[in-house]
C-alpha cells in the first residue's frame, strides 16, 4: 500500500477548495498532500488509516489532517451489507472534503495573536484529529452550508470550523507524535516504500535485511535513517502499529485476547500484555472491559 502524492485543486481563484463526492464504494488510495484536509465521510461501515492509526467507524467520520500525513479510507464490512444499508435506509453515501494551505488567507494570517488557538490546532493536525459529538454535528452542517455559499461567508464558515475544533472537548488525536510529516520529495518516495512494506507485513516477522534492501541501504544505515525520520526505532514503530491494530480488534469484541495477540503479530501473550500496557497504560483485558462498560452505559 504505497502512499500517492495527491495534488488537491487549490488554485489562485479561491482561497481553498471544497467538494462533495457521492460514493458507491468507499475506497480511497493511501495518499498524502501538502495541504490541510478536513473530511466528512458518510458511509455505513468504514476503515480509516491515518499515519500509524488504524480504526473503524460506523455511519459517519469527521477528521482533520495536517500536510503530508498519509491517510486513506476503505469499506469494512462487505459490499452487499453496504448496499443493503443504503437501500433500506434510503440514505446515500458521500464525502465532503475541504483542502486549504496555511497561507490561504495570507502568509502571516495564522500568526496574529487572535489566531493563536487556531494555529495550535493546525499544529496538532500533523497527528490527525478525530472530531466527534456535538462538534461533529455543527461542523457537518457548516460544511454543507459552505457547498452552497460564496464570498466572505464561505471564508467565515471555514474559520468557524477551525475555531470549533480549537475549543472542542470532543476531539482526539489519531497518530502518535513524530510521524514523518516533515520530509522532502526524495524522502517521501523512500519512506513510501518503507511504509508500504511495513503495512503489508507488520502482522508477521519483519526482516530487517529485506526492508533495508528495499530502501537501498545497509541494515545499520537503514536503522539510523528510520529513527531520524520517525523519531522511533523500527521495532517501536511496528509495535505501535500492532497495538493500534489490536485495539481495533478489541473494540470489535469478536475474538479472545489470545487470538488478538497472535493476529496482531505478537509471538506470545506476555510480550503482548507488556507492550500493550507500556503504550496504553492498561492491560488488554482492562481495555476490553472499559469498551464494554462504555457500550453498556450508552445502551442504558
Low-confidence stretches: 1-5, 78-83
What gyration radius follows from the Cα positions, in whole Å?
20 Å
Query: Helix count?
Result: 11
Biggest β-sheet strands, sense, barrel: 7 strands, antiparallel
CATH superfamily of the largest domain: Jelly Rolls
* Shape verdict: globular
Mean pLDDT across the residues is: 85
What is the name of the CATH class of the largest domain? Answer: Mainly Beta
Structural class: alpha+beta
Kindly report how far apart the N and C termini lie. Answer: 41 Å
Count of structural domains? 2
- Give the name of the CATH architecture of the largest domain: Sandwich
Oligomeric organization of the protein chains:
single chain
Task: Find the count of extended strands (DSSP E, 2+ residues).
Answer: 9
Helix/strand order, N-terminal first: EEEEEEHEHEHHEHHHHHHH
Instruction: Specify the helix fraction band.
Output: 40-55%
SSE map:
Blueprint lengths: L3 E2 L10 E8 L7 E2 L3 E15 L2 E13 L5 E5 L3 H11 L3 E8 L15 H9 L4 E3 L1 H15 L4 H16 L3 E3 L11 H17 L6 H7 L4 H12 L3 H19 L4 H7 L5 H12 L3 H16 L1
Parallel strand pairs: 1-3
Antiparallel strand pairs: 2-7, 4-5, 4-6, 4-7, 5-8, 8-9
Helix pairs in contact: 2-4, 3-4, 6-7
Provide structural commentary.
By secondary structure, the protein is an alpha+beta fold. It folds into two domains: 4-173, Sandwich (Jelly Rolls), CATH 2.60.120.10; 185-299, Homeodomain-like (Arc Repressor Mutant, subunit A). Helices cover 47% and strands 20% of the residues. The chain contains eleven helices and nine strands. Strands 2, 4, 5, 6, 7, 8 and 9 form a seven-stranded antiparallel β-sheet that branches. The protein has a two-stranded parallel sheet with strand order 1-3. Helix 2 (116-124) crosses helix 4 and helix 6 (208-214) crosses helix 7 (219-230). The radius of gyration is 20 Å and the shape is globular. Residues 1-5 and 78-83 have low confidence and may be disordered. Keywords: DNA-binding, Transcription, Transcription regulation. This is Helix-turn-helix domain-containing protein. Pfam families: HTH_18. One of its GO terms (molecular function) is sequence-specific DNA binding.
Amino acid at each position: 500500500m504505497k502512499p500517492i502524492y495527491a495534488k488537491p485543486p487549490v488554485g489562485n481563484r479561491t482561497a481553498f477548495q471544497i467538494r462533495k463526492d457521492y460514493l458507491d464504494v468507499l475506497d480511497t488510495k493511501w495518499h498524502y498532500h501538502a495541504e490541510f484536509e478536513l473530511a466528512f465521510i458518510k458511509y455505513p461501515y468504514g476503515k480509516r488509516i491515518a499515519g500509524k492509526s488504524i480504526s473503524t467507524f460506523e455511519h459517519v467520520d469527521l477528521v482533520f489532517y495536517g500536510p503530508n500525513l498519509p491517510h486513506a479510507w476503505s469499506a469494512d464490512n462487505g459490499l452487499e451489507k453496504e448496499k443493503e444499508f443504503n437501500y433500506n435506509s434510503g440514505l446515500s453515501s458521500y464525502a465532503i472534503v475541504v483542502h486549504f494551505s496555511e497561507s490561504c488567507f495570507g502568509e502571516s494570517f495564522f500568526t496574529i495573536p487572535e489566531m493563536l488557538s487556531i494555529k495550535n490546532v493546525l499544529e496538532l493536525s500533523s497527528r490527525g484529529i478525530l472530531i466527534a459529538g456535538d462538534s461533529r454535528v455543527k461542523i457537518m452542517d457548516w460544511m454543507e452550508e459552505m457547498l452552497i455559499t460564496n464570498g466572505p461567508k464561505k471564508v467565515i464558515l471555514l474559520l468557524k470550523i477551525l475555531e470549533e475544533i480549537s475549543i472542542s472537548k470532543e476531539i482526539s488525536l489519531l497518530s502518535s507524535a513524530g510521524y514523518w510529516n516533515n520530509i522532502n520529495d526524495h524522502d517521501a518516495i523512500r519512506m513510501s516504500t518503507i511504509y508500504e512494506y511495513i503495512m503489508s507485513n507488520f502482522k508477521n516477522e519483519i526482516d530487517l535485511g529485506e526492508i533495508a534492501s528495499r530502501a537501498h541501504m545497509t541494515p545499520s544505515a537503514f536503522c539510523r535513517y528510520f529513527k531520524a525520520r520517525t523519531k522511533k526505532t523500527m521495532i517501536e514503530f511496528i509495535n505501535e502499529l500492532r497495538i493500534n491494530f489490536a485495539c481495533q480488534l478489541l473494540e470489535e469484541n469478536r475474538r479472545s485476547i489470545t487470538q488478538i495477540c497472535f493476529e496482531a503479530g505478537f509471538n506470545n501473550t506476555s510480550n503482548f500484555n507488556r507492550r500493550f500496557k507500556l503504550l496504553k497504560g492498561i492491560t488488554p483485558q482492562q481495555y476490553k472491559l472499559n469498551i464494554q462498560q462504555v457500550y453498556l452505559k450508552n445502551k442504558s
